[in-house]
Amino acid sequence: LALVAEEFGRAIAPVPYIEHIVTSRALAAAASDKAAGVLAGAADGSRIVALASDPVKTGVQQLVPAGAIAKDVLALVGDDLVLFSVDTPFAHVSNQGSTPLAWWDFDAAQRIVIATGMQAQQIYTRAHQERMVLTAAALVGITEYALGLTVEFTKTRETMGVLIATLQGVA
């Protein structure tokens, strides 16, 4: 997954690949019959799922990566792993990366508890850690691509008949 995330980053695509994969894996780890329909939809691509960045608190809206296109968000609430669902995703929050961020009102969503206690904590923690690792891999891809563009530009760009790579400030 890290190699795929790196290539995904290289493409600089503002799609919720990492969110969807991490959340789908967490849903599968929970092995809950209650979430089987959502997991099946996530597997065939008909449903986009997302992971809440932080544990959810009652009465507080939370910014959710992929929340503007996901109808289902997996979150930790106390000691419960809860799958929140809405009929229509929440409104997109404009951002520099054009990612599908949205403020989620978890109190307005339907909820299904899919794991409790230590199992819920472990699944959420692992999903959160996987998201961090895959995000880091995507950032490596972005960096490598940007560095490649810069090196190619430096090797081919001229100023006053001289390659800019030979100039002291660039070299």
Morphology call = elongated
Mean pLDDT: 91
Radius of gyration: 20 Å
| Low-pLDDT runs | none
The helix content, as a percent range, equals: 40-55%
Distance between the termini: 36 Å
Order of helices and strands: HHHEEEEEEHEE
The largest β sheet comes out as: 4 strands, mixed
The structural class is alpha+beta
Counting DSSP H or I runs of 4 or more residues, the number of helices is 4
| Share of residues in strands | 15-25%
Q: Order of strands across the widest beta sheet? A: 1-3-4-6
How many β-strand stretches? 8
Structural notes for this entry:
With 171 residues, this protein is of the alpha+beta class. The protein is 43% helix and 19% strand. It has 4 helices and 8 strands. The strands form 3 sheets. Strands 1-3-4-6 form a 4-stranded mixed sheet. Strands 2-5 form a two-stranded antiparallel sheet. Strand 3 and strand 4 (80-85) form a beta hairpin. The longest helix is centred in the C-terminal third of the chain and has 40 residues, at 117-156. The model has no long low-confidence stretch (mean pLDDT 91).
